[in-house]
């Protein structure tokens, strides 16, 4: 935890290319010899009283962090498991998380907000630093920042000029290459351009096809232009294109007696593709008494997922999900100059998202026979022994079309008041968000009842309708700190908010049940409260927003000798906490529901020490997250732990640098790095009967640097720890995803 303090120096420089996405202001705060970079809209006035974990470029390189999931455990209670599909990026902070739909954190890359969680798992490229703001940030950022904010900053052509390139190879036939050029044309204009490509054969094989399963490949380009038009006006432009394609997902069926998972073994094609474009522009304008900053951004996402939904060699059904989304975002901030005891900012923001989704589910022979016909004939056999229903089609498609426009507007204010060694912060946000769902689902089959029919009869089932959601929220925050120089004590109280949404993934199950009911009605058999009516659309199609009240109390110590220590206590009460569950029975759908009330409390600590050529650091997080009130109508889970969030996160590392003096034969510098990360205990279900125990991962690297060249040997999970990252149910079967095995590789870099 870093509690930001000291004198503020705004170094926000902006670029402009028509139609491109922007970089909001960021600040550098100097604490003696330590530089802490933290993102805040419009630039921070003096300091925001929020725990910040900073990961600099050197740490990213030493730990070979190549994606957001690689940051898991790098901050206390910050956990991002690898769920196989790079469309699924679940983030957990302090016992709060989301497996599907809306995220619990806000993600910003060069100021561009990633409002779609599908885009979180991208390849890191030219990253300068990462800041993790822990705890609710809703008063500034609004929706879906109930856990915090991750701000990623790329390298600026004003900070570095020259060429950076690298090429790497590792086990699993992993290959990477990237190159970037940074140019400062003059004191007012800077341009950077870069490209990358990554690929891997993966580490798992599908026993059914005997082919590589979790392979991937992807690449992209990034362009940035920064223009200081005058001393009072500057622009920043950021433009990125990214492409990703991966194979299937390594989910193995679990033997529930021995709790061991078999190798992946399924017959239908599975994989994921994604294409993204981000453009934006921001500006900073110095006025006589104020500073005005603005952002406008656009993002386009086109992704496609194929999935064998039963994950077995049987032919039940498969899913093809095509999504296209357009997002426009704008933010304007007016703030006071930085020479007053009272400083403030006023902001207004808005966004619009439009999602077009086509998600057909293909029912195949085993699914038709064992699910639809078995259920239908089970009831009929009691009344008409020896008779049965037949379906003509060997395969049929359940069509699912969704159009989901979402919009939001907000007004917010933050004030900072300094009195001696005290600093007080107060913020308030009025947030309004609306969402509309238009769905059009249907299936067409031909059936025959042997007792009364000689020819197949057509049944056409349709589900078509509209739903609307509207949320208007008041999101306050208050905080105070006392700073003696080396010591700082702070406390805060904030209200967090995570938007509600729609359970689109459950529509195939809903339509399946409706189709069976239509078939029975066509036969004149009208059953009430039957398995055919298991789903009520009004009950399952939407879920409510989640709210939390977060209290924090922390202390920070920084010495002039390189020693830093942070300790924080938090206590969070959540109402209507959003929880991903699997409906009972032969379902493949996941749905979001609302638990009545949960409480999450714990501690977070970090320590670091720099002495000559030695760097030591460590982070620890403990979370006790339990249901206070949650009854699903069948079970009372009060007192049980919230699933999927680890009770502990541990991270410790050491860097040792060896310098060579004027020796042409030896490297200029040798950097030896080792770190260990630990996670657990993680419960897989609400009953707390299934769990992943605490596990650790040992990682390391050795870097040999001889300007302008660097040769790096790295390894992850060096002890080949056996662990699981994901558990789920499908068709009444249990599945686990094993964590990545030992990984190692070699990387060659050049900086000219």
Low-confidence stretches: 1-40
Q: C-alpha Rg, in Å?
A: 27 Å
Number of helices: 5
CATH class wording: Mainly Beta
DSSP E strands, number: 44
Outline type: globular
Mean of pLDDT = 86
Q: What is the CATH superfamily label?
A: TonB-dependent receptor, beta-barrel domain
How would you characterize the largest beta sheet?
Answer: 24 strands, antiparallel
Which range best describes the helical content: under 10%, 10-25%, 25-40%, 40-55%, 55-70% or over 70%?
A: under 10%
* SS class: mainly beta
Distance between the termini: 35 Å
Q: Judging by the overall fold, what is the CATH architecture?
A: Beta Barrel
Task: Give the oligomer, counting copies of the same chain as homo and different chains as hetero.
Answer: single chain
CATH topology, anyone?
Answer: Maltoporin, Chain A
Strand percentage lies at: over 45%
> Total domains, how many?
1
What's the structural blueprint in terms of helices and strands?
Blueprint: E1 2-3, E2 7-10, E3 26-31, E4 34-39, E5 51-56, H1 57-62, E6 78-79, E7 92-93, E8 96-97, E9 105-109, E10 112-113, E11 127-134, H2 138-141, E12 148-154, E13 162-170, E14 174-186, E15 189-200, E16 216-230, E17 233-246, E18 251-255, E19 260-261, E20 271-286, E21 290-308, E22 317-336, E23 342-358, E24 361-363, H3 365-383, E25 389-391, E26 396-419, E27 422-449, E28 457-483, E29 487-498, E30 501-502, H4 507-522, H5 537-540, E31 542-543, E32 546-558, E33 563-581, E34 591-611, E35 614-629, E36 648-659, E37 669-680, E38 682-683, E39 691-692, E40 695-706, E41 709-716, E42 724-730, E43 733-738, E44 743-751
Parallel strand pairs: 9-12
Antiparallel strand pairs: 1-5, 2-3, 3-4, 5-11, 6-7, 7-8, 9-10, 11-12, 13-14, 13-44, 14-15, 15-16, 16-17, 17-20, 18-19, 18-43, 20-21, 21-22, 22-23, 22-24, 23-26, 24-26, 25-27, 26-27, 27-28, 28-29, 29-32, 30-31, 32-33, 33-34, 34-35, 35-36, 36-37, 37-40, 38-39, 40-41, 41-44, 42-43
